[in-house]
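QA checklist item 7 of 12: single-chain prediction sanity check.
[x] sequence parsed
[x] length recorded as 314
[x] structure emitted
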Amino acid sequence: MAPRGTKLTLNTGATIPAIGFGTWQDPEAQEVAVGEALKAGYRHIDTARVYGTEAAVGNALRKSGVPRDQVFLTTKLWNNGHHPDDVEATLDASLKDLGTDHVDLYLIHWPVALERGDNLFPKDDKGKMKMADVDYVDTYKAMEKLVAKGKAKAIGISNFSKAELARLIKETSVVPAVHQVELHPWLQQKEFVDFHRQHNIHVTQYSPFGNQNETYGSDLGKLIDDPVLVEIGKKYNKSGAQVALAWGIAHDRTVIPKSKTPERIRTNFDGDFELAKEDVRRIDEGLDKKVRFNDASASFGWNFFSDLDGKKEG
């Protein structure tokens, strides 16, 4: 069963390939990994300034021979670049590393600002993050200008709460094209997803395998080994991981799995297949544990996801 090459449409009219390739972590391995992904057929690459992988992505794109206009390229503004006077220069630095004159999508990585400067994680002498008093609405308004200049074909956000997103929509003129959030069968956030649908904002699922990443740790076992996903997969000769991806795509969301292993890169790409409606429903109705694995609130001293499913108290 060959992957379908599913594309979804953003509120800008642009299309985005349903399966993207994530490049968080292992920066030294990303040039080869992105090259493998492009060879396997991926045409949607996701990176970020803070990952330190933009240059590797750019090198891989250049060496692949795949025309730039055939690849949907996303990067993200890091928290130390939120000041409106810094936004364009920060994107320019990303574009230089990526070897391109534009990105297809530029996201605010987190709705919190850190101290201006070159230090990605500025800390005081007690080891606490040095915050900056910059409103994410002002940051986003500076990003709107980058669309007009053609440096970003679309803009959006990542890791916003419902209240933060509602305020952003109310106080800015460009509705975000995309919101990138942690979302998987164990954290389905149905009400929040419906809110995006009402405002025609596309949802991209990061960590589509939940706690597969060792950074998160968990005593729940691996999501991709969930018996329901594994059982459904047997019907299609697919793995639990591939079923998790297909489930997201069945809901018209993009998914961005990551791997540096060539075989897994290829099998993840094969997660673009059609699940029967009853299998989608079985996952919808039976697997939502409301478990969130990525919450950086303690690190940044900001209460992320305060009104969303999976928020741990305290």
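[x] summary fact logged: The chain has a mean pLDDT of 94.
[ ] second reviewer sign-off
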